[in-house]
Write a structure and sequence with these properties.
The protein has 456 residues and is an alpha/beta fold. The chain has 17 helices and 14 strands. The longest helix has 20 residues, at 312-331.
Length: 456
């Protein structure tokens, strides 16, 4: 069949308030041209993030009704633990209120100013949590992962040769953990192959370095392995997931992505000494180890979400629908990250707006214009997000992208067709668009709360 239908029916709807261009021009000006500062009621199609924006299923809403809110030892925790263990059987499981809390706890325990943390590509909060400990966050994705036009099937792969060279240069004693992000969000939602996960583990083993997976989109990564990697077409997604995590010593996870939940996350590991320290830190900052800042009903919703996210009908629809949007945008000549990622379409702002230099934030300019023209809220992933260095200097990011992150089970095909039309229309008058500047910015994670204006 050419038409990929949603493998679900809609039982409840939420109205969208329609706005005019004139209204949106005022809203974005009042928000200092920062899309994070907009009121969501003023957004028509919200593609800012796929984190926590999924529509939950009837089974998940039903499971929430049996959530047990006991402070310690809730049966909701054990249902949650059973669901996680089925896919990621690490010895110690530590729930958190979301993924960045897991990152914060991990790096607070294992990292200090003498350390460096290699990754294929750190996302914004991961990098910030590493740097908050004074450590260096090092990106070692393969060369194809830095080329938006490359059609490499696994552009999220770790550069194995570069990783080994970095370890021998820096010294393994200065690298407490190696991270691998699946899929590679900052690099366009690109997957990591099973072979690359295995090779990364082999390098880490040679130097005695634990390997942790940033697992936010593990199911989407597994689907890409099934579709693209030789030897896996007949392997179930569940078994691919289990093999992925068999090569790791632990993981950080945001259940707001491939947990299909609106809140939650966890930290898991095999190192008992680290687990003891992390749980003590959890009690200080999040809550008792059997709830970790979550309600019992959240834990039950995640448990069901982990069952549903590995269903192959769902994953087929999920990836095909993202590819549908990417294909139609690209057919109009709009430059995008190729091939399409799992959770989002990434527009290449440098090629979309070649007349705007990187330090005038072409990605931010494009993201603002998509909202102004059509009410679509996306997210800049480029120099505004990553250009500011720990010493206060600024350099252009390797890529300037605008991410249109598609929430799971939330929007219809006609709404995605509207997104395509808006992108195409903005592309037609791109030459008239101007660069932007920060008029006020914090010292870290400036893209969340900073203020922008147009360059004169």
């Amino acid at each position: 069949m050419k038409t990929i239908i949603e493998p679900f029916r809609i039982k409840s709807v939420e109205p969208i308030r329609m706005t005019t261009r004139e209204e949106r021009e005022k809203y974005i000006e009042d928000a200092y041209y920062n899309l994070f500062t907009l009121h969501s009621d003023d957004v028509l199609i919200d593609l800012l993030t796929d984190s926590g924006t999924s529509s939950m299923s009837a089974r998940q809403w039903g499971a929430m009704m049996q959530g047990d809110e006991s402070y310690a030892g809730s049966p909701s925790f054990y249902r949650f633990k059973q669901a996680v263990d089925k896919l990621m059987p690490f010895k110690y499981l530590i729930p958190t209120h979301q993924g960045r809390a897991a990152e914060s706890i991990l790096f607070t325990i294992v990292a200090d100013a003498s350390h460096s943390i290699p990754n294929n590509t750190h996302f914004d909060t991961t990098r910030a949590n590493v740097e908050a400990q004074g450590a260096a966050a090092i990106d070692l994705v393969i060369a194809e992962g830095r080329d938006p036009e490359s059609n490499h099937p696994f552009k999220g792969n770790m550069d194995i040769e570069a990783l080994e060279k970095f370890i021998t240069t820096k010294g393994p004693e200065n690298i407490p953990v190696c991270m691998l992000t699946v899929t590679n969000n900052s690099g366009g939602g690109q997957p990591v192959s099973m072979e690359n996960i295995r090779q990364t583990r082999e390098v880490c083993d040679r130097y005695g370095i634990p390997l942790f997976i940033d697992a936010c989109r593990f199911a989407e990564n597994a689907w890409f392995i099934k579709q693209r990697e030789p030897g896996y077409s007949d392997v179930s997604v569940e078994n691919i997931v289990r093999e992925m995590f068999s090569y790791a010593d632990g993981c950080t996870m945001s259940a707001k992505k491939d947990g299909l939940a609106n809140s939650g996350g966890w930290l898991a590991m095999n190192n008992e000494d680290w687990a003891v320290e992390c749980r003590n830190r959890l009690i200080l900052t999040e809550g008792f180890p059997t709830y970790g800042g979550l309600t019992g009903r959240d834990l039950d919703a995640i448990a069901i979400g982990l069952e549903e996210v590995v269903q192959e009908d769902y994953l087929h629809y999920r990836i095909a629908s993202t590819q549908y949007v990417a294909r139609h945008i690209a057919e109009a000549g709009v430059p995008i990250m190729q091939p399409a990622g799992g959770h989002a379409v990434y527009i290449d702002a440098n090629r979309f707006l070649p007349h705007i230099p990187p330090l005038q934030y072409p990605g931010q300019s494009l993201a603002v214009e998509l909202y102004r023209h059509g009410g679509i809220r996306g997210c800049e992933i480029g120099t505004a997000m990553f250009g500011l260095q720990p010493d206060g200097t600024e350099i252009p990011a390797r890529m300037d992208l605008v991410r249109l992150a598609i929430p799971r089970r939330t929007y219809t095909q006609s709404q995605m067709d509207y997104v395509v039309e808006v992108v195409q229309e903005v592309f037609e008058y791109r030459d008239s668009m101007r660069g932007m500047k920060f008029t006020r910015q914090p010292k870290a994670l400036r893209h969340f709360t900073g203020r922008f204006g147009y360059v004169d």
